[in-house]
Specification:
Chain lengths: ~150, ~150, ~150
Amino acid sequence: MSQVLNNSVAQATGDLYAEVQAFYARQMRRADSLDIEGFAETFTDDGEVVHADGGRTAGRAEMIAAMRARLPRYEGVSTQHWFGQLLIERLADGALGVSYYTLVAQMGEEGLSFQPTYTVDDVLVRDPGGSLRTRSRIIRRSGPVRR
Amino acid sequence: MSQVLNNSVAQATGDLYAEVQAFYARQMRRADSLDIEGFAETFTDDGEVVHADGGRTAGRAEMIAAMRARLPRYEGVSTQHWFGQLLIERLADGALGVSYYTLVAQMGEEGLSFQPTYTVDDVLVRDPGGSLRTRSRIIRRSGPVRR
Amino acid sequence: MSQVLNNSVAQATGDLYAEVQAFYARQMRRADSLDIEGFAETFTDDGEVVHADGGRTAGRAEMIAAMRARLPRYEGVSTQHWFGQLLIERLADGALGVSYYTLVAQMGEEGLSFQPTYTVDDVLVRDPGGSLRTRSRIIRRSGPVRR
């Protein structure tokens, strides 16, 4: 994060900014429609996710199994994952480091509710066809600030 | 939506992404300030809106009449329409297909509340002066996902 | 605002849109991590802020003192400042006028809550190194619309 917060990081172009935003818009359409296999395809084969509770999946098969296990809590509700305050930096190996806030809105029979907010740090890479995929994702639950 | 979700859709440039975002920022400033005529001007003369409840308006006169009828529920509160996870695709006829999530925050005497979340599919076209206008809008209330 | 709402305002390029979004993403990471000095550095030396309650700070020293005084209400909670519906216009003196909606999400021991929504009007300028800084900020609490 210290790199991301440094103003001296090379500025992402408008084209890259739009491409990254579109990548997440497609990835989250799949997550929110519970298209688990389609969602997993937006990660690299060996994509890793570290959840806020410390849980971790490595590779698409584990990711799909973990998402299937969480399915019951998403049935009967409609979920929208919102991303905000996106920061993009170009990493030394050509990958992209992307940091963003998340807000998750859920419409159920009792109306709209929100899940806890998170801050996420992704590493995105290009597949051989040039499309972006998520290689790693670290999800941090926003904790109280202590000074 | 299937086209929008397909990675093979031509990537919107950064300039187009910024232009579309600015179009919506202006359109929603007008909606949120209850400038009904100004809002209607951001649609084409024959602009159509299909609401989540199935209601439909065709053309600016109907749109203005329908908005006037809904005015009482917006008086005394302050409304912010937020758009997220925007997806832009270029359609065959040169129009733009744009899909986005909406979150509507309202500040009233009892504090902040939220309307239900929606997913919206717009078709935007350019007027003779080159400015974007909304030709059609389909608003879908996010329903529970059933598998 | 009338200028911002006018379609004839020169369109911000994708590069500028991405740069301004990244500027705010960094500025708000500092605010939300209670890095008061780092936050103040994103303003010009003589930067002015007019708060929604009419309070006003002029210059970094006053800004830092005012933020220190407000610190207790941010301790023990985690804050995310979200910005939306961003509008950018180029002002006559080369500065940028930027208008946006804000949504402030706070995670505390009792879960997620939201502060009132605001509309903010900023003037951004470039420092000698070419980086953006905020020269002035006017924060308006969204009030009920009366016609």
